């Protein structure tokens, strides 16, 4: 199977497949006599595994660890679970940060008149964040 077919089968783009190969996430594909990459069933399984892992939000580093665990038939499932739990914690932190950013942006939007005048609380805050923020919450800072 060539790279285009492998891309269609795995859901990855050909560019991503080449990138994963360049960073060592996948082994270099075998080449045909004319130099085209060739992928076998095992390669496709690995590419699909990477795609599903990335869809779950795992970083490339985490995907590499998952691939190593997947290939290690002597591994403990506890190792996989620990990695997944770490990822859940990172997602929880990110969700909290995003909620804080959303709240801050809502506060700025509420402070903006949104009329024909040029004054805008959003742009003022982005220009000079030290201006009074009227309770605007920033990541890492809680407003009670």
Automatic annotation (TrEMBL):
Keywords, comma-separated and alphabetical: Cytoplasm, DNA-binding, Transcription, Transcription regulation
GO molecular function, one term: copper ion binding
Domain of life (superkingdom): Bacteria
Keyword Transcription annotated: yes
Record field: compositional bias (Basic and acidic residues): 135-144
Listed GO CC annotations: cytoplasm
Coiled coil: none
Location in or out of the cell: Cytoplasm
Swiss-Prot/TrEMBL GO biological process terms: positive regulation of DNA-templated transcription
Keyword Cytoplasm among UniProt keywords: yes
Residue ranges occupied by any HTH merR-type domain in the UniProt entry: 1-69
CDD domains for this protein: HTH_CueR
Region (Disordered): 123-144
Stored PANTHER family: HEAVY METAL-DEPENDENT TRANSCRIPTIONAL REGULATOR HI_0293-RELATED, REDOX-CYCLING DRUG-SENSING TRANSCRIPTIONAL ACTIVATOR SOXR
NCBIfam families per UniProt: CueR (TIGR02044)
Listed name of the protein: Cu(I)-responsive transcriptional regulator
